[in-house]
Amino acid sequence: MRRALFCLAALLFPAVAAAAEPPKAPAFEADVLPVLNAHCLQCHGGVHQKNGLDLRTLAAVLKGGKSGAAVVPGKPDDSLLWQKLAKDEMPKTDNKVSDANKKVIREWIASGAKGAEKKAAAVVERPAGRPADVAKLIDKAIDDRLRAAKVPASPRAEDAEFLRRVYLDVVGKPPTAEQAAAFLGAADADKRAKLVDALLASEDYGRHLGERWVNVFYLATVNQSPRPPEPFKGWLAKQLNEGRGWDAVTRDVLTATGPIDDAPQGLFFYYNGDMNSQFAPKILAGNIGQVYLGVQLQCAECHDHPFSDWKQTDFWSLAAFFGQVARMESVENKNTPGVKERHLEVKPGKKPPAPLKDITISIPNDGEARNGGKKVPAGVLDGARLAADPTRSHRPPFAEWLTARDNRLFARAAVNRFWAHFFGRGFVNPLNDFGDHNAPSHPALLDELADEFVASGFDVRHLVRCVTLSDAYQRTSKIAPGNDKPGAEALFARMAPKVLTPEQLYDALCVALEVPEVAPPADPKKKPNPKLPPPPSPRSVFAAAFRGPGEADEPTELKLGVPHALRLMNDPAFNTGGKLAERVAAAAKSPGDAVDAMFLAVLSRRPTAAERTKFAAFVEKQKTPRDAHARVVWVLLNSSEFMLVP
Amino acid sequence: MRESILRRDFLRLGAAGVVGASPSGWLLPRVALAAEGRAERPRSCIMLHMQGGMSQHHTFTVPELKAENAQVDTAVPGVKFCEYFPKLGARMNDICLIRGMSTGNSVHERARVLMHTGYNPNGTVGYPSVGNVASAELGPPDAELPNFVSVYAGADGLGSGPLHRNAPAYLGPKHAPVPVTDPARGIENLKTALGAGEFDEAAALLAEFEAPAQAARPSAAAAAHLANYKKALQLLRSDKMKAFDLDREPLRTRDAYGKTQFGKSLLLARRLVEAGVPFVEVTLDGWDDHGGAVNNIKRRAAYLDPTISLLIDDLKVRGLFDSTLVVMMSEFGRTPQLRDSGYNQTLGAGHYATAWTTWMAGCGVRGGTVVGKVDAKGGEVTDRPVNAQEFLATICRALRIDFRKEYLSKEGRPMTFLGPKAEPVKEAF
Questions:
Q1: A413: how many CB neighbours lie within 10 A of its CB?
Q2: Which residues have CB under 8 Å from A243's CB, separation 6+?
């Protein structure tokens, strides 16, 4: 059966099936550029080009600097680059190039100083694959790499581990004790796939993925008191739950116009504003570059990118599309928040303004950026100019270009982010740093999944199904002998434990304690003031307290500190056992039963025999069962197992 | 770790016969002391942050023209303060007054970022505040107490947006400040719901439960979780946490610092510094005196002048003054009387970053010094302007922090706390 599926996959997607590549001559982008990046680009890159030499691209290397070409293809000994490196004349710092890397450079020059073959992006015209087939493709690509690296994969996770993981990843919260018992007790061989389908059909799927995506922008807001994100989160949840394509959703975000009440996605522009909440084209360009294109354009705000060949004009060309976007409040002088364009409307009876040759934006002349005052025309990254009509919004043509089926940057950046949502890391890391200088860990698989995403009409549910059905996703996060060595995490040999986001942590506390909210009881003396906006929900207050100032969420990095640990330990809202301890005290027939029930409710699993014995002994030693249960819940809630997605 | 790096540097520099070869040139004395086995008292800073924009005209630089206040003589002949600050005036021998602050940013939140980090926020790169840097550079990594405590001393007047938050940026979350929102209560959630014995039993069960999980699924996140809990338990059980308990101070001292939240914050700051915390920031909000500063500052000075003076005396009595820098600062000053009518007719009504005043004392700062002069209206710096980076570089110089040390941002970009042009105000030493 397995074999048959592989054959089917090979027929459907020959590119991946042929991915076992023979050894090749070194290529500039994959092999040489990382060495240059580590040792040379500080002085010969986008910021400094000492002696006129720029080593960021193959063309620039061949052109050379004031001393002539840096490389003579085929002749290492005649090449300046080799001469300088071989004798350690360069780099001038202590950061010398290792012998192994020198060998790479020498072989590359000797084999003709070639670059990678660039394939033109083809528009994907095939139908989407079946999720189970795509999952097999994922596994073939991952397993091939593991085999080649001689790193063993960890075995398939037990049902309980998979259960907790897939709940937290897809709907953002762990299963209730009842849901966990139902899944663990089911004998159906296909129960994992059925669970994925059930979770994807629940409203919480859109709620969770929407919240995570909005938070990428909301948490990066420069202004310290941004508008609450709930309307935007609700809007995105609805789009995802209705199954709209990611391309259409993205277009709606980037072209949002009107009051926030009607178009909540317009909050996107508030989160890309400056300190005074004025919409800022340069911040928009930087964040759209990072999130939707996966490239670090923002370094090019002030100067050409030091390590890749993004030019300052690339950055400002993109910013130019957003030069007219403004807050409704500042355009109309009313208190209605919303998004507006500065000269979008032609007043009746007035002649429309003459068409512009180009939409332009001026680089601010504030002494921070180079070339201050220079006018830059709007353009997209491949150099094409888009039509400019001053009577219309400039954003739709940009959004169309961005989300086009043949814009591989968009599909790849999205797939990389969604993959990282499940695996804790992308194929490209950091997620926003695609480029020749930073090769993906599984390039063919990334391309294949990006094609699959396009083929499915940018269907996020389809992508989630494909990923969660793979063996790679269903592996245990326990180490297997030999797969805990450095570098193995990039091969996905075992599942990386991920940190709960503050919202996930709050929801997990509610589920575990079997209460609707965890919050200090309201002060009965304080009467709500109907004139003031309603106070933020306990959940958002909790989330704000459990994130540091200006902190974005990192999937595998614990950013909580000692104050948070103290609060989880000692705040009575979290550590008196909740309704769970009461329920267990009323229902459990023996200390062992009680321990079983509490493990299931808090950790979605049953205790091991040793754990059961140890915890039951602890329960028996306490003065009252109620105290005993509250303390067991305390122990489980404060464990790293509770704080992490297994 | 830190010690060994210092030692290695010292040996290398010593062997090469280089003196002052660290990028900023001041590490050597401390290294030399360490090598001689003579431990120098670690340096600390208490930064008094007057959030909202403190009027220089009604505090430490009363203008010659259009003044609203009389002036009082200070301990230094020729140097005068506003009449509301006689006690601090009497301690001018310890103070270095910087009258030429000229920082160029008069938007509250942005200016607060500038005065703490040295950079105007640009939405692209995050910069740490001086307190975060002090935590990273001065704080022992295994310290029982937090290395950066941020104390909220309350609000007395008009607010001007959210409290400034010191984001650690590329230094990482362990250098974020531990907040104290009420100095009388100290760090929150330090008291367990259980008795000590019962709590210890539960904590022991947690430790037993945790060990196999950490071994089976090792990860940086799980290790960080465990480290947090160990540190939290250490704090719960530490004798040093007494530093946060103002009730342990003799009644006489508590009375002297007074009943205001600001006074209590200063007492807490002194106790923390005494216990070895490298950086304490005390924020008093409410200084956005658009309706005029004179009455508001008279009200505030009634507790600021005696308590800050007491802090200086107290640090001296305890032998802490030479190793503790006290800084009084704000995000900007307030407008001179630019016009005779209209918005700026009232002295100090508007935000003003062109010419304003801060001061520092202790930790080797040369007391009795006045750096910079302003014109008769107090509207222009006529001698020795000081920008935000120079101000922060001066704090670093006093604390022996190398502000040109390179860190790596997440994107792999080399970062230094202050820029290549930053120089400390040398007149301050």
A1: 24
A2: A459, A461
To test the contact with chain A by mutation, choose from B12, B129, B210, B219 the residue with the greatest count of A C-beta atoms within 10 A, namely B219
Comma-separated ranges of CATH 3.40.720.10 domains in chain B? 43-186+245-428
DSSP B186-251: -STT-S-SS-HHHHHHHHHHHHHHHHHHHHHS--HHHHHHHHHHHHHHHHHH-GGGGGG-GGGS-H
The CATH label, of 3.90.1170.50, 3.40.140.100, 3.40.720.10, 3.40.50.1370, for the domain at B43-186+245-428 is 3.40.720.10
Least Cα distance to A492 among A600, A419, A542 occurs for: A419
Cβ–Cβ gap B221/A570 under 8 Å: no
Yes or no, beta carbons of A614 and B214 under 8 Å apart: no
- Across the interface, which of B202, B214, B222 has its CB nearest the CB of A635? B202
Q: pLDDT tens digits for B102-158?
A: 999 988 888 999 999 999 876 567 899 999 999 999 998 888 888 999 999 999 998
> Residue B6: what pLDDT?
36
A549: closest CA among B166, B163, B334, B337? B166
Of the pLDDT bands very low, low, confident and very high (cuts 50, 70, 90), residue B44 is very high
Q: Which parts of A56-130 fold into alpha helices (H)?
A: 58-63, 80-86, 99-110
Q: Is B217 close to A646, i.e. CB distance below 8 A?
A: yes
Give the pLDDT confidence score for residue A104 in this predicted structure. 85
Kindly report whether the peptide bond that precedes residue A91 is cis, defined as omega within 30 degrees of 0: yes
Task: Report how far residue A9's alpha carbon sits from residue A16's, in angstroms, rounded to the nearest whole number.
Answer: 9
Contact yes or no for B408/B399 (Cβ under 8 A): no
CA distance A377 to A321: 9
Q: A-chain residues within 8 Å CB-CB of B221?
A: 497-499, 556-558, 640, 643-644
Q: What is the percent of chain B where pLDDT is above 70?
A: 88
Q: Which residues of chain A have pLDDT under 50?
A: 1-22
Q: What is the ipTM of this complex?
A: 0.81
